[in-house]
Design a protein that fits this description.
disordered N terminus; globular; three-stranded mixed beta sheet; 4 helices; 17 strands
């Protein structure tokens, strides 16, 4: 790829890294200062959300947290879970489509709500409880003004209900529907721990949810591409060979989308971030 790749400076160790390829300006968005809300989860492989943007560029991310949302993080054995906090950051972009006031980007919400926040005996997935918290308690205090809010999901939203195992896989349909119930549209990809029902297969969501795996959708005048899963053994959920993964990414990029979302991303050796060197190259 001839275009330069630019790493947006990270303002906190918790923040998902966002990358931008520089493309010619697009006429589909308007100039101005808009807000984006970014939530993130602390984990071993922080590079998860890969965005290729044209005219819409991240200009800054406020190092001061909007808030921290407590949740239950699974342990390695029964009773070994702990309370962690999900940081919520406010970022700024120089343009959003007309009529939009914000975009929410999140991934790797591998946890459960706290016992105090649960309204019944079922402890919901963190990603299932989060949308209502954002829409009712966080966003009203940001004074965004009237406008649509879209959501970008980059996968891995499951944690076993017993909270005694890390890296479990399970049904995340409720997470996607929860975001769709609170916001205007949802676009995203699956992570390698995500199932829809009982299988790692493409879900049949209707609008306003747009699931992506090697395809492109038009939303708000933006062309958004996405690739689910990670490079790996194709016999395991949401994995394809590295060659196939790279071929899929290259095919998506050849269409010059405004945004591309993946669960896996390029490595950044200079910053100590793991990822795929093949994706970077």
């Amino acid at each position: 790829m001839a275009n330069a790749i630019r790493l947006i400076k990270s303002v906190a160790a918790h923040l998902k890294k966002v990358y931008q390829w520089q493309h010619p300006a697009s006429p589909r968005t308007k100039r101005g200062r808009f807000r984006a809300i970014c939530t993130s989860y602390i984990e071993r492989e922080p590079i998860r959300l890969l965005c290729v943007l044209s005219d819409m560029r991240i200009t800054s991310i406020d190092p001061a947290l909007i808030c921290e949302i407590p949740y239950l993080n699974a342990g390695k054995r029964p009773g070994d879970f702990r309370v962690d906090s999900l940081p919520v950051h406010l970022g700024f972009v120089d343009a959003l489509p007309d009529g939009m006031s914000a975009m929410i980007a999140t991934a790797d919400l591998q946890g459960r709500e706290t016992f105090d926040s649960s309204s019944d005996r079922r402890i919901r997935l963190l990603g299932e409880a989060l949308p209502n918290l954002l829409s009712q308690e966080v966003i009203p205090g940001l004074q965004l003004g009237r406008g649509r809010i879209g959501v970008v999901l980059a996968g891995d939203f499951y944690t076993v209900p017993e909270l005694d195992k890390r890296g479990g896989s399970g049904d995340v349909n409720r997470v996607w529907y929860a975001f769709a119930n609170e916001f205007d549209w949802v676009v995203g990809v699956a992570g390698n721990h995500d199932l829809f029902g009982y299988a790692a297969k493409r879900p049949r969501f209707g609008r306003p949810i747009h699931f992506l795996d090697g395809d492109i959708v038009g939303v708000e005048g933006l062309q958004i591409a996405g690739l689910s899963g990670i490079p790996g053994n194709p016999q395991r959920p949401w994995r394809r060979t590295e060659d196939n993964y790279i071929d899929e990414v290259e095919q998506l990029l050849s269409a010059s989308p405004d945004i591309i979302v993946t669960h896996d991303g390029p490595n950044v050796p200079s910053a100590g971030h793991r990822g795929s060197s093949s994706v970077r190259n």
